[in-house]
Every structure is written in structure tokens, then in C-alpha cells.
Amino acid sequence: MPSHVSDQGTTQVGEHDDAATPGAGRGDGARRGATMRVVLVTVTVLAVLAGSWLMNQRQTEEAEAGEISQVEVAGAAPAPQIGEAAPDFTAVGIDGEEVRLSEIEGETWIVFMATWCAQCRVEAPDVEAAHAEGDGVTVIAVYVGEDADTVDAYAERLGLTFHQIPDADNDIARAYGAGAIPHHFFLDADGIVRDVRFGALGPRQIDEALATTR
């Protein structure tokens, strides 16, 4: 009898252990399921945030790049390409100072623009800021088809202090094939074109372009 009771007790304990195991498994499964749901939600949120950031970044870059406006420049020569010498020119700015490209020391940034050009106005503060930093680059704005009085009023209104060159007869624009504005040429100290860009440039694009001239 005592041995029979002992066997029965042993059997009952084993049955209790077996019964406890499935319950523990279900609890572990529930916890794993909850963890997976948290992970999936987190991944989804991160994906949405990443997509939103990329979209905003792309929109920012597009806004910085901007659009271009077509201008009529009869008899325009092919625009100088990267690695070619920039055409020399001599012109008088709105301040009465004569500017000769070949006599400028250091790097030069030439931007073809116009007072009526919306994207030119957009980038004007950033161009002025780059000029004000005084990194040795000479900034020259050439106003396609516009006279001195028009350019003078525009530059004063926007507070532009770099070289302002009226190009009423399109002589400079013709030499550079500037049929669209804003049109930027970045030259090294030897007058060689190192970068060419279209549209309104933001600070990042300006820094990238200027870096190619050094």
C-alpha cells in the first residue's frame, strides 16, 4: 500500500508539470506576439518618418535648384564648357568702375541674370552672402539686355554690393551663350571654367561650386 500511494503521488506530480507547460508556452507566445507588434509598429513609423524626410529633402533641393527663364540672345556662341577658358570681356559697372575679367586675381563667379527674373531674386541674398564672406572669390552679375539705370535701381533695392554689370547689347551674354537665366560660371584663378550651373542656387550648391575652383 505505501508503495502504491507513492507511485500515485508521483504520477500526479508529473501530470501537474505537464499541465503547467502548455500554459507557459501560451504565455511566451503571447509575449512574442506583443513584441513583434511593437517592432512592426516601430519599423512602420520609422519608414514613414524616413520617407517624409527624403521627400522634404528632395523638395528643398528642387527649390534651391529652382527654374530657369529663357532669354533671347541673337548670335550667341556656344557656352564655354568645364575645362575651357572663359571668354574675356571688359565692361563698366553701375558704379562706373571698369571690370576686365583677365585682370581679376583669384577665383571668379559670373552669374547671368535679369531684374525681372524671379529665380534671380530668390538666390540674390545667398549670392550676396557668399560675396560678403570674402573668401577671395570675385562675384560678377551680368544683367542680360538691361541698362544701367534699371540695374542700379534693382541692386539698391536688394542691397547687392558685388559687381553689377549692365549688358544692354548682350555682348557678354552672346560670348557666353547665356540663353537661360540664372546661369552660373565658376572660374579658377587661371580663368578656366570649373563648374557651370543653372537656376537659383542655395548655400550648399554655392559652396560645392566654389570648392571646384580651388
TrEMBL record:
<dbReference type="InterPro" id="IPR000866">
    <property type="entry name" value="AhpC/TSA"/>
</dbReference>
<feature type="region of interest" description="Disordered">
    <location>
        <begin position="1"/>
        <end position="30"/>
    </location>
</feature>
<keyword id="KW-0472">Membrane</keyword>
<dbReference type="InterPro" id="IPR013766">
    <property type="entry name" value="Thioredoxin_domain"/>
</dbReference>
<feature type="transmembrane region" description="Helical">
    <location>
        <begin position="34"/>
        <end position="55"/>
    </location>
</feature>
<feature type="domain" description="Thioredoxin">
    <location>
        <begin position="80"/>
        <end position="214"/>
    </location>
</feature>
<dbReference type="GO" id="GO:0016491">
    <property type="term" value="F:oxidoreductase activity"/>
</dbReference>
<dbReference type="InterPro" id="IPR036249">
    <property type="entry name" value="Thioredoxin-like_sf"/>
</dbReference>
<dbReference type="InterPro" id="IPR050553">
    <property type="entry name" value="Thioredoxin_ResA/DsbE_sf"/>
</dbReference>
<dbReference type="Pfam" id="PF00578">
    <property type="entry name" value="AhpC-TSA"/>
</dbReference>
<keyword id="KW-1133">Transmembrane helix</keyword>
<protein>
    <submittedName>
        <fullName>Peroxiredoxin</fullName>
    </submittedName>
</protein>
<dbReference type="GO" id="GO:0016209">
    <property type="term" value="F:antioxidant activity"/>
</dbReference>
<feature type="compositionally biased region" description="Polar residues">
    <location>
        <begin position="1"/>
        <end position="13"/>
    </location>
</feature>
<keyword id="KW-0812">Transmembrane</keyword>
